[in-house]
Design goal:
Elements lengths: L2 H4 L4 H5 L2 H12 L9 E5 L5 H9 L4 E6 L2 H9 L9 E4 L13 E5 L8 H10 L6 E7 L5 H13 L4 H7 L7 H8 L5 E14 L3 H7 L4 H6 L2 H18 L7 E14 L1
Parallel strand pairs: 1-2, 1-4, 2-3, 4-5
Antiparallel strand pairs: 5-7, 6-7
Amino acid sequence: MSERAATSWDPNQYRRYSDHRLRPALDLIERIPVADPRTIVDLGCGTGNLTRLLARRWPEASVVGLDHSPEMLAEAAAGEQREPSAIRWVQADLRHWQPDHAPDLLFSNATLHWVPDHAALFPKLLASITPGGALAVQMPRSWGLASHRLMRETLADLKLGSEALRRSLDIDPVETPNAYYRLLAPRAKHLDLWETEYLQTLEGPDPVLEWVKGTGLRPVLQALDGAERERFLAEYSRRLREAYPTGVDGRTLYPFRRLFIVAQV
């Protein structure tokens, strides 16, 4: 397992700025072309908030929330006490997962960029769907953002972390839209691809740092020991403040680009 895939998740950290994380998922759901899916699998369900939204949207469907993180699944299962449902929560590694029965909808919001080898993964997922069903995916295009470039540069400049960690971060996990079109168009009856840049307005001290702590910074923080981690954070947060200055209103603008794919078979 790669260092990128092996890291654990903090549900509380991920929930920060939850409104900004929810909006792309809602935009993706609105473009799903399947009117009445009978079986839905949420790939990378996390704490289950979107899985529950899918279950409410299609109440007659059998819904599965699947995630690799036991911490996230524990949070999702705990939510059953607040909102009981028929959702089935499953722990699985998406690199090896196969559905028991062909689903009508495979939904994945901000997950598949953590899974390697998209040239094999996406055709495999598409081939598992029942005819007329769809694969609906949203992935961040964050690798080229200043926040993520500075992450890599800070590690290199301070000579922190292992060579394997730095190599893993040097690879953009998300291909270009053209690459996904070439990969999926021959296999799909209908393919919808688009990108959106969200101008996110963040609040609080070091808000961009707090944002990336919930997602892309996790492999770095978990790979560094205490002293290295503090040294890295001090310099990285300084660079982030320069790249994303706080406005006179106390808010910080953080442009964030995302890629959307809806492929119907």
